[in-house]
Amino acid sequence: MNDGGEGTGRATRSKRADARRNEKTLLDAAAAIFVASGVDAPVRDIAARAGVGVGTIYRHFPTRSDLIIAVYRHQVEACAEAGPALLETSPTPHVALARWIDLFVDFLVTKHGLAGVLQSDNTGFEALHTYFLDRLVPVCTQLLDAAVASGEIRSELRAYELMRGVGNLCVGAESDPRYDARRLVGLLVAGLRGPN
């Protein structure tokens, strides 16, 4: 006679998978709202976009700081995973790099609000910044190396420099509608090609 242990195990794994999907949906919705409206956007807007009640968000993320940190980590992982996928699916490595930088800009716009939220926790902010560099610099390096190897871009630029430059171009973009950081970042990425 089956004691149900195997079925219970499958049900538990299924619930965990559902919980991960639900959390991903919440984090995707929060990231989109943060990009559009900043990290101070009302939680009800995030809930509406995710198709859940406000209480569901607070069950997963009891404070705004918890939500912002989770979105930050979620976006770092999404950027890290996107690099290799874009290299496989883009027509050229330079196109893959440009598409990845576009995702990175979305991430940076969200990230700007993080500093204010974590002001009182410098250790936490430093740990997240280290995590950010550890996960994304190798991905950007892989994209740059592929574009250099294909002969599409110059070879003297390092990933950290490019990411820092893009970051600097994004500073203040969320508070000045006359400033189009994405356009300037696009010019920077196009300029990597150098003279023909």
Please write out the topology:
Elements: H1 5-37, H2 43-50, H3 54-60, H4 64-89, H5 93-117, H6 122-149, H7 159-170, H8 181-191
Summary keywords:
196 residues; mainly alpha; Arc Repressor Mutant, subunit A; Tetracycline Repressor, domain 2
Name of the CATH superfamily of the largest domain: Tetracycline Repressor, domain 2
Distance between the termini: 75 Å
Radius of gyration: 20 Å
Percent of sequence in beta strands = under 5%
CATH top level of the largest domain is: Mainly Alpha
User: How many helix segments?
Assistant: 8
From the 3D structure, determine the CATH topology of the largest domain: Tetracycline Repressor, domain 2
Helix/strand-derived category reads mainly alpha
Q: Tell me the count of domains.
A: 2
Can you write the helix and strand succession as a string?
HHHHHHHH
Percent in helix: over 70%
Poorly predicted runs are: none
Give the beta-strand count: 0
Shape: globular
Q: Overview of this structure, please?
A:
With about 200 residues, this protein is mainly alpha-helical. The chain has two domains: about 1-60, Arc Repressor Mutant, subunit A (Orthogonal Bundle); about 65-195, Tetracycline Repressor, domain 2 (Orthogonal Bundle), CATH 1.10.357.10. It contains eight helices and no strands. The longest helix has about 35 residues, at about 5-35. It is globular. This is TetR family transcriptional regulator. Keywords: DNA-binding, Transcription, Transcription regulation. GO terms for molecular function: DNA-binding transcription factor activity; transcription cis-regulatory region binding.
